[in-house]
């Protein structure tokens, strides 16, 4: 156990030394034999500890005296932290309970914890999605919060909601995805109105389940290009303030009549709405098949500049079944498509990518199992 307290008792340099010592001991412990089941949110706790140091210094500069206590418990490979207020502010600010993963890298300036996983099923009960993700070794997951192929939304019981929220303690970051049928670019009023209602309902459910990101496809113009961006912008503007989290606009693959295949379209919608609750989800397959060669670091750099690094919150990590610029929307397993292992290695050299929520939406394959594919993706990401 390492323990320090008092404003200024730990500076960042000393904190790093203590953390690295704890990591070295944890690395030799038996828990490292089960990296996805025993060590829990080790890196996340460390980040919170460093944030605590930063917070106390910032408060001190404003004249608010606040002491902090950082406890590092390395038994069983776990780390816990705690901030405690001074006598005038005796409220405790507890850190998260350790519960699942160790998947991070340490640099001279910061920790990077890799949040990566699959889109998983909610069959049986929505909370079972966490168990499926945990079994695969995920640190992130994506789900539909309702039937993806219908307009109706089945009510969730109080028990289902409570179980889902409780299982967030697994340390797996959940991302939601809109169903297939809504079309926010539709020129047909009946479909357009139903799509807005579906977006509102999905937002309400994400709030209920405490899901921070909801990925949205912009839809198809059905050949009526005029005012398509207006329709999408108006629909999102009507709903976005109802969400406690962020709506993420996903790029399309260049299919006929699709909205969002060109990054400039995404940027224009973002600028029209001008909300901090709006961001982007970058799909690698869609980008590649719409003509953006993500194997080229210069192309990725241009994508970053167009959309804004901080605005891109999630990555759909999918290989492409068809060649560059094909205009198809066909995902392939990582390393088995036209992007390939070398292409993804190059993509991940843009290190900001690994700071995002990374979701695989790849098909079932006899050539590679889900666990093997996830391990490959982690390796290509440099972890």
General description of the model:
The chain has 383 residues and is of the alpha/beta class. The protein folds into two domains: 2-106, no CATH class; 114-380, TIM Barrel (Alpha-Beta Barrel). 35% of the residues lie in helices and 16% in strands. It contains eleven helices and 16 strands. Strands 7-16-13-12-11-10-9-8 form an eight-stranded parallel sheet. Helix 4 (158-167) links the parallel strand 8 (140-143) and strand 9 (173-177). Residues 1-11, 27-41 and 62-111 have low confidence and may be disordered.
Q: In terms of topology, how is this protein built?
A:
Blueprint: E1 2-5, H1 12-27, H2 42-61, E2 69-72, E3 82-84, E4 92-94, E5 104-106, E6 111-113, E7 115-118, H3 128-136, E8 140-143, H4 158-167, E9 173-177, H5 189-209, E10 213-216, H6 228-239, E11 246-250, H7 263-273, E12 278-283, H8 284-289, H9 297-307, E13 312-316, E14 319-320, E15 331-332, H10 340-347, E16 357-360, H11 370-380
Parallel strand pairs: 7-16, 8-9, 9-10, 10-11, 11-12, 12-13, 13-16
Antiparallel strand pairs: 1-2, 3-4, 5-6, 14-15
Helix pairs in contact: 5-6, 6-7
């Amino acid at each position: 156990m390492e323990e320090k307290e008092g404003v200024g008792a730990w500076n960042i340099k000393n904190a790093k030394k203590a953390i690295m010592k704890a990591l070295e001991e944890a690395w030799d412990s038996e828990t490292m034999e089960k990296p996805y089941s025993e060590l829990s949110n080790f890196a996340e706790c460390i980040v919170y500890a460093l944030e605590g140091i930063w917070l106390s210094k910032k408060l001190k500069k404003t004249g608010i005296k606040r002491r902090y206590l950082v406890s590092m418990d390395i038994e069983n490979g776990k780390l816990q932290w705690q901030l405690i207020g001074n006598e005038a502010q005796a409220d405790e600010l507890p850190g998260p309970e350790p519960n699942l993963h160790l998947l991070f890298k340490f640099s001279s300036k910061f920790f990077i914890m890799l949040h990566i996983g699959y889109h998983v099923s909610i069959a049986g009960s929505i909370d079972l999605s966490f168990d499926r993700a945990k079994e695969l070794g995920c640190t992130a997951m994506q789900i539909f919060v309702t039937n993806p192929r219908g307009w109706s939304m089945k009510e969730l019981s109080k028990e289902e909601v409570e179980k889902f929220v409780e299982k967030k303690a697994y340390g797996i970051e959940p991302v939601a995805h809109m169903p297939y049928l809504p079309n926010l670019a539709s020129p047909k009023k009946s479909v357009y109105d139903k799509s807005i209602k579906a977006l509102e309902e999905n937002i309400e459910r994400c709030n209920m389940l405490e899901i921070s990101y909801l990925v949205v496809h912009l839809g198809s113009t059905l050949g009526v290009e005029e005012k398509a961006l207006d329709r999408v912008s108006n629909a999102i503007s009507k709903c976005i303030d109802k969400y406690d989290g962020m709506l993420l606009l996903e790029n399309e693959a260049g299919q006929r009549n699709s909205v969002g295949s060109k990054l400039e379209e995404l940027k224009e919608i973002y600028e029209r709405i001008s909300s901090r609750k709006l961001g982007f989800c970058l799909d690698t397959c869609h980008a590649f098949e719409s003509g953006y060669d993500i194997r080229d670091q210069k192309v990725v750099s241009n994508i970053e500049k167009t959309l804004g690094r901080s605005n891109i919150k999630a990555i759909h990590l999918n290989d492409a079944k068809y060649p560059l610029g094909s205009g198809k929307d066909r995902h392939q397993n990582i390393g088995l498509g036209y992007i390939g292992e070398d292409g993804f290695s190059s993509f991940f050299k843009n290190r900001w990518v690994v700071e995002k929520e990374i979701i695989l939406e790849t098909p079932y394959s006899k050539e590679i199992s889900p666990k093997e594919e996830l391990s490959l993706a982690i390796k290509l990401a440099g972890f």
